[in-house]
Amino acid sequence: MPLTPPAEPDPEPKMNWASFYAVISGVNRHSTGIGRIWLSVLFIFRILVLVVAAESVWGDEKSGFTCNTQQPGCNSVCYDQFFPISHIRLWALQLILVSTPALLVAMHVAHRRHVDKRLYKLSGRSNPKDLEQIKTQKMKITGALWWTYIISLLFRIIFEVTFMYVFYMIYPGYKMIRLVKCDSYPCPNTVDCFVSRPTEKTVFTVFMLAVSGVCILLNIAEVVFLVGKACSKHLHNAGDSTMGAWIQQKLCSF
Amino acid sequence: MSWPALYAQLVGANRHSTSLGKTWLSVLFIFRVMVLVVAAESVWGDEQSDFTCNTLQPGCENVCYDQFFPVSHIRLWCLQLVFVSAPTLLVAMYVAYRNHRDKRKAGFLSTKGLDEELETLKKRRLPITGALWWTYACSLVFRLLFEAGFMYALYVVYDGFQMPRLVQCDQWPCPNLVDCFISRPTEKTIFTVFMATASSICMVLNVAELVYLVAKAVNSCFSTKTSDPSKAHSSQDNIHLAASLLSPVADGISSRQHIMYMYTYHC
Description:
The complex is a heterodimer.
Chain A: H1 17-25, H2 33-57, E1 66-67, H3 74-82, H4 87-99, H5 101-122, H6 128-136, H7 144-170, E2 179-182, E3 191-194, H8 198-239, H9 242-253
Antiparallel strand pairs in A: 1-3, 2-3
Chain B: H1 3-14, H2 19-43, E1 52-53, H3 60-68, H4 73-109, H5 114-123, H6 131-157, E2 166-169, E3 178-181, H7 185-225, H8 229-245, H9 255-266
Antiparallel strand pairs in B: 1-3, 2-3
């Protein structure tokens, strides 16, 4: 019996969550420890679960939605009335929007590096070693970068909460019901329509919401950490003798 | 050839863009290409198989689907994204031409190895002046035209951005007027509005970039006309001051911030 050749690897890489991960994880280097935990939770417990499990649960959401009628079009219309936007699409949009504020930080870091390069060149230190050093050094989260980071965290929290609210508005109670009653045209009278896999969908919805809550808590913890760190640094510096006082005077006059 | 390959091409050309151009590229890939691939394609996946008409007449569904959906939204958006990305390749081609020309010049004059020269040429970032400015501005104008053109085409073909639940069709071979039902109309409307919004944001970014480039060109035109020779001398002083200060500084704030404060103090 001839052996079947091994399956060829997919020659065309797709634009998908993997390439998105590559883009977002680059920002990781400039995050705090809590930020890195947040990113891992996002990718492992949300994106991975979405791709490997949730998408197959919702895969037959339309074909498995059955109404107790043979009237053509009734299925489509009732499905559209009760599911204006699928959970999967809402989660995909939520994950994309929640990850993008991190790119604000990446842009700020790139801008800072560009300014540093210019200063180095002005001072005559333009050998490739120094310029490489700028690229690889880790930026401290101070000054304007601190503000950018805080704003990105606040946007993340706002997006997460907004999506949880939208979910609640569209699917009250976060529970997937087994049976919906529909009387939109062209359904004759009121017909019973049955949702496919309601319990499994409820389980995944609750799971994704719980992880979303955990991510919100991580973001809040990170904000508190950064604010606390900045306050303690400010107090420490204000307490310092000559250098701190001189800097404060310059800052005030600037 | 796929979206990541296009991304790789555009990122290469992006090195010579302004910050607005880099923001535009991020918005394009994250909010348009990414959303199209991971979300929108699955919404439109069953658009023909779930297009149901209230008749058993064979061929009626096919004919009615074809009448109301001459080109699918997904295909229109793919074409739009390809056309909108293409002008950036103009810039990439011009940069490649400049590198080639400079390489030929450098080959005659320099004593370094040719490979080293080529690497230096490839890594440098060209300032957006002269012919590159015109190429860049043309690419922005074309981007705007393509974006507006495709949005207008989508609006005209589908009579607005909303997807109706029901369409009525009387093409042969359908007997009389039949009701045909579209699958997931609300979800499709949501995604159409989202993509139209992202497209508008991209147009705004392109307009802003164009205004910025024009303003920068006008500004540099005026400053070269009215430049004062004595100012050049004092700027040299400041550069030396910055250089002398760019030595390791004591603990506390970073050397960079120290330089900025001292520089502004002495200006």
